[in-house]
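Possible regression after last week's pipeline update?

I re-ran a chain I had predicted before the update to compare outputs. Posting the input and the new output here so someone can diff against the archived version. Not blocking, just want to make sure nothing changed silently.
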Amino acid sequence: MSERRAVITGIGVVAPGGLTREAFWDLLTAGRTATRRITLFDPTEFRSQVAAECDFDPAAAGLSPQEIRRMDRAGQLAVVSAREAIVDSGLSFDAMDPTRIGVSIGSAVGCTTGLEEEYVVLSNRGSTWLIDPTYVVPQLYGYMVPSTLAVEVAWTCGAEGPVALISTGCTSGLDSVGHGAQLIAEGSADVVLAGATDAPISPITAACFDAIRATSPNNDEPQTASRPFDGRRDGFVLGEGAAVMVLESAEHARARGATIYAEVVGFAGRSNAFHMTGLKPDGREMAEAIRVSLDQARLHPSDVDYINAHGSGTKQNDRHETAAFKRSLGERAYQVPVSSIKSMIGHSLGAIGSLEVAASALALQRQVVPPTANLHTADPECDLDYTPVTAREHKMDVVLSVGSGFGGFQTAMLLARPAAA
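New output (post-update):
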């Protein structure tokens, strides 16, 4: 990485079971699960009827009636997270040169909720082929353009520098933070709001994942349906949420005496060029992303102290990821704790990578490894230390966070404690 290094100085979170940064961390360290039967719509007709929902009230979260009307749920989650991150950072954005403020927001499915709701109204629940456009809300065009999510965050902080929407499927949240760190490193911005948001819990999304049998049908026990690395796992659990972080150069942060959660010391992505949803069992592409991120950070596999895994809870992902850790880290893979927070907050598609970066930064700061909930039955092919059920105090200087997405995307990011870096 460049000598102009990016550090995290503010974190904002809206997550299932935790609508603020501290509530999110409390949920993770307690090992509580936020998965339940879907309440945002009637799921009776679907194979998978469970999800991890945010009990989110936009008015209670401080959004005005106009903002609530204008923004899709994903935009609302992003803006509320961004506001919390700004306050946490202690930065006065009004006093900054706006051309030196950037935004990098990730999303896999954009404004899915708003688009589906409008289609249902316009088509009279699909019964009308020729629709009357006078029934459409003025915000519909914004729903169709995912970059409006990044625009909303830019308006929140007054950013007039580089602003981008990163959409790389389920690695979007990692890639958006990585892109933000690169903007800092290359000198394009002094401060970047980076993170991701998705609110995909809707009938169309449920139907799509039902069709490929990717989500768990464990409807009788929704609290235990998300079981990464467990021998009984049968698919992932859909989630929603957002996490936004304030990134700034280490020099900028230290000059103002900011609290630094972590430094982004390595970031790399690879593609398997293989299959839209399939993964090769050897984990070669993820292993290569890990190797390159280690080289960037000038670190050795023995320096990795904790792995925040993708850990979706599908059989092919968990085996692929386990193989990638062994391939890239060698014997260190057997010595370092691994965990998946998707066991507690589900898989929020593009948002989850940023939620995992937030969890990794908090783990580094507080020296606690979040657990993998619902992990009770060993899978012989998943034979690493997955931190089952209970959080663990653990000395950490370097954390590896990885993501894997439809289309073959593989991303690795390394965070380090400021003193260690």
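Follow-up from reviewer: compared with the archived run. The mean pLDDT is 95. Marking as no regression found.
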